[in-house]
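Schema walk-through. Below, the input block comes first and the output block second. Nothing else is stored per chain. Lengths vary across the set, and this one has 281 residues.
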Amino acid sequence: MADERAVRRAVAAHGPFVAAIYGGEIEPREGHYVAHNRWVDEPEWNHAGHLRVAAGELERRLDDIRRDLHAFGRAAAILLDPSSSPADLAVRLRDLGWVDSFRHSGLIWPQEKLPLKEVEWPAGAAREEMRSASREKPQDSPLPSMEAFASVFEASFAETAEGHLSAGYRSAFPASLRAGVAGVEVIHTLVRIDGEPAAIGSRAEGGGVAGLYNLGVAPRFRRLGLGGAITLHRVAAAQAGGAEVVYLLTEDPRVEASQIRRGFERAFELVGWTEAESPRS
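--- output ---
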């Protein structure tokens, strides 16, 4: 079981990491932060996090969050760690009209554990990494590669997106390399097989923490071991870069099971609550 301090560091890093990976912005507020994104219109990327509410203040604070996010034309969402929230918070949120709409299972790579073996890539595999502008030597012209990255993203996740995969990702990924979030470096990994875009993975690093996101394999390249190869590559690269905590999030029980087999441990859960009515007219 991951230690409590590692969990707290992973939970705290998630909001800034998501903003950095998807070209969003994160702004501090009294007792919470607001993450908003002009490219991606899904509520998971336009939310308030780290909600800390004194007794009797919940309704006012939720109104503050609505106002903050509505100012960006976004439906409001909050992301909560149940282990550090009041026991009755879920009941109170439902009474105030909020809906429990998504859950992320948080997995952490045990700090004392190294990747068990060298990463084995399939025949014909070539890896390319695109780094955010905070690096001393960023990619000179990442756009063609980011187009390939986005094509694999769409092929990988459209089938699980419940009929909606925001078109804004094609703008969000290049924006994530240009804009950046203070203290966070983003690395997008693209793997081609015989020159054809086949698999992707992103990671964000900062403050001794690394978050792994966007593991995707195009349908025709599945069952070649690409998912495991990219996962272990990112773990090893993050550790080599000094990360003390390496984590990932997933909503898919199958992905969770496969990552546990690779060495991750289930460590925490994040619950997303969205307002019942959208502000869009």
